[in-house]
Amino acid sequence: MIVTPQRHRFDSPLRLRSGGVLPSFELVYETYGQLNAARDNAVLICHALNASHHVAGQYADERGQPLPKSEGWWHNMVGPGKPVDTRRFFVIGINNVGSCFGSTGPTHVNPATGQPWGADFPVVTVEDWVEAQARLLDALGIERLAAVMGGSLGGMQALSWTLQYPQRVRHAIVIASAPNLTAENIAFNEVARRAIVSDPDFHGGHYLRHGTKPRRGLRIARMIGHITYLSDDVMNSKFGRRLRPLAQALRAGDTEAAERLAYRYTTQDIEFEIESYLRHQGDKFSEYFDANTYLLITRALDYFDPAREFDGDLSAALARAQADFLVVSFSTDWRFAPARSREIVKALLDNRRAVSYAEIDAPHGHDAFLLDDARYHAAVRAYFEHRVGAGLPTPTAGGAA
Amino acid sequence: MIVTPQRHRFDSPLRLRSGGVLPSFELVYETYGQLNAARDNAVLICHALNASHHVAGQYADERGQPLPKSEGWWHNMVGPGKPVDTRRFFVIGINNVGSCFGSTGPTHVNPATGQPWGADFPVVTVEDWVEAQARLLDALGIERLAAVMGGSLGGMQALSWTLQYPQRVRHAIVIASAPNLTAENIAFNEVARRAIVSDPDFHGGHYLRHGTKPRRGLRIARMIGHITYLSDDVMNSKFGRRLRPLAQALRAGDTEAAERLAYRYTTQDIEFEIESYLRHQGDKFSEYFDANTYLLITRALDYFDPAREFDGDLSAALARAQADFLVVSFSTDWRFAPARSREIVKALLDNRRAVSYAEIDAPHGHDAFLLDDARYHAAVRAYFEHRVGAGLPTPTAGGAA
């Protein structure tokens, strides 16, 4: 499935919860499948911290051939014959404002100054993102979504859709998410932000003017994040206490060398395989991600709390929702633990909403929502086939609907 | 109880597991209570990452009055009438080499160069520390310890004592500890180290020569550490999602102001109370702690793994131990989870050692080992009273034994 990003410009201002205003803005998005004549088979996918509009399919080179490793971040979930089947549903991937992947964000030029926004980009919230997404749906002529779906921060957006636009959502699929962050979640975000902000190359957020970027801080931020995405179990089984040179020797088939290997006793160099892995993740991230975007998106996470206006009563907060729900959590996810998903389920049941809940026994921690787990995908597939797709034509085998 | 640190110089070299050598070294220590005539009532306390020889008692000002807030780090555990009762036991607090609290460490002068050791200080291990501690006991004329005791990294030293000097330890008290670090533990240490090493003020570890120190990195390291010392539950109950200005207003009794307070929407300033707390911890730590010491001590944690020479077989590794054991863990400690303590207990039982095990239901996470928990202290008190103290004279009420 070859896909091409599209771009839509909005010339009426977006007034943000923070008091800031984007006088105009652009959203980058992709679509997969066909919008049907009734315009009622649209599924919106919301992204989390580190992702974009590029949910599924592949990009093409100049000759129209698929580019290697250009698959969308949820390509195992969305596509022809996938759990969210693009032969049946018209799926929209959208990049949020504040991001660094194409939609209006802090690396773009602030029209008021002619300079990049940098740290002056206004604080954006989950609610703002949902409002911007709703404007794109208006532009696409979609009055009502068959479903809105997301994992982690994306799940918060899906939940917020049902509260901000209850009439416009038939189903919400909220995966590995939470009704708000715990103190520990905020704490991890804060350490990551401090690593970025205290990097001398951050320059108060105006590093672009200085021709630099706070790579050191971004590396640390990503390393911290990565630890919280994985479970203790999966880290032990993937890396354990394996030494880095040992792992290299084993890969080279040199078992004799491997046996001779001992601790090198170093405080600054890599000793354990897990260190090598984390440094690599940090290095990659620091090259492609924008530091101000990292601050903005972690703050959107921190601020999300629909129960806040209701004295912390989540059931009262969710009373507005009209959608049906699928809520999914993963047993070893300690970032957004199953108990947090159960809070959502309980509050929805208090409001007599139709809720399906799947707690998937998976070893991969928070990352599980992105992985190809048979039981997880079966639960999402069944929900889309029988619930979201009820009343929609079934796909003809092999053909694009 | 007024105490004064003492210092002992060792002129014969300490050959380290890393291959490094300390040609001479000094250990700073404190003692509490009286060594009895049989010299068999000594209890050695081993410290963890952030502590020192100052275990109990208080320091005095020039007039001999106790200095406020000068209590030792385990003063709720050690002292007259405390669970480790200094009327009965002669307790030794000792500062390890590599530390920044007095014993020979990276801020001291390398005799070979006349410059501070800095990053050239050799890598030290738990085993090296235990060997140095044994030399101090030789100097004090103590052949055999009534008990060796420690929490966290201190517990690793207590365990290592029973393997390195099985004849010299009657009892080992291993609290909130583990037989080695998991991949996740190492990962958190590594992120903290990277934050320090990548601080431009680190200068490859020779920051003293540059008249600076990597405060930014130390702050981040401490913030990360602090999150892992606390449980999710205790963070939620102490801080939750409370806003910083709200907390300030409530402390000032201004509930009306508190009710008006809303999100300020900021990416770089403090919004939540937990952020304020973590920043404060990081700031304090960055002033008093040495960065090279942080690297050394976290590496000592990473490297500790007595089962390593036995193909990972902990039971085989602990076969040398002759001591009796009290092992204690805390239910919400996710840094050194109870399951890790149970590994130690199982391996000891495999070797038919006498083991008492207490798994304390406490909300405070890893930090619990430092706190005044009634059930925890009762368990330690009973063990010292009835097991360690068996055969020793009981203290006379109120008097120094």
From TrEMBL, chains A, B:
Domain of life assignment: Bacteria
Domain AB hydrolase-1 per the UniProt entry, residue ranges: 41-371
Write out the residues that bind substrate: R222, D367
Q: Which Pfam families match?
A: Abhydrolase_1
Q: Where is this site: Important for acyl-CoA specificity?
A: R335
**What biological-process GO terms show up in the record?**
homoserine metabolic process; methionine biosynthetic process
Q: In which pathway does it act?
A: Amino-acid biosynthesis; L-methionine biosynthesis via de novo pathway; O-succinyl-L-homoserine from L-homoserine: step 1/1
| Catalytic activity annotation | L-homoserine + succinyl-CoA = O-succinyl-L-homoserine + CoA
Keywords, A to Z, come to: Acyltransferase, Amino-acid biosynthesis, Cytoplasm, Methionine biosynthesis, Transferase
Give its localization.
Answer: Cytoplasm
Xref: PANTHER family? HOMOSERINE O-ACETYLTRANSFERASE
Family recorded in the similarity comment: Belongs to the AB hydrolase superfamily. MetX family.
What protein am I looking at?
Homoserine O-succinyltransferase
The coding gene here is: metX
